[in-house]
Amino acid sequence: METVVLEAVTPETVSALAELAHEIWFEYWPSLIGADQTSYMVDRFQSLPAIERDMRDHAYEYWFVRAVDDGRIVGYTGGHVEPETNRFFISKIYLLASERGKHFASAVVSFYERLCRERGLSAMYLTVNKGNDLGVRAYRGNGFSVIDAVETDIGQGFIMDDYIMEKRVK
């Protein structure tokens, strides 16, 4: 049984997505990466201008994650096709704190598997903070494997210390 419906973000709903991103990021990330890096990353990657830029310049697609039972928005997700690698880069799967542990992330991964098959892509991949044990466990449980580890300088003295995880699509 399907637990979520993914609803495409329209130009009219992008600001609502940015507000949701702000809420989710500030309820989860400060304890892992600190308040200063959280603020910097929200501004650089999750703000309205950043989301609009990614959609306009980098062919990002975004979806609201809605619970089937009552239609409430429980999170958001997004990413883009990488034609050069024949993979889908899942840039974001973020859920409200009250909705974590309810298998919504698994349903989103299933959505991406179908999307990859429909588009003829061979795999999907994502980056996950090495300290995000909840995320790493969830992705492993959904068939992702660590294929690399990277430290990325994102400016202002901040580093993203991530695993790259991939799931092949048959």
TrEMBL record:
One Gene Ontology term of the molecular function aspect: acyltransferase activity, transferring groups other than amino-acyl groups
Methyltransferase listed as a keyword: no
Domain N-acetyltransferase residues, every copy: 4-170
UniProt-listed SUPFAM superfamilies: Acyl-CoA N-acyltransferases (Nat) (SSF55729)
Pfam family for this entry, one: Acetyltransf_1
Keyword field: Transferase
Protein name: GNAT family N-acetyltransferase
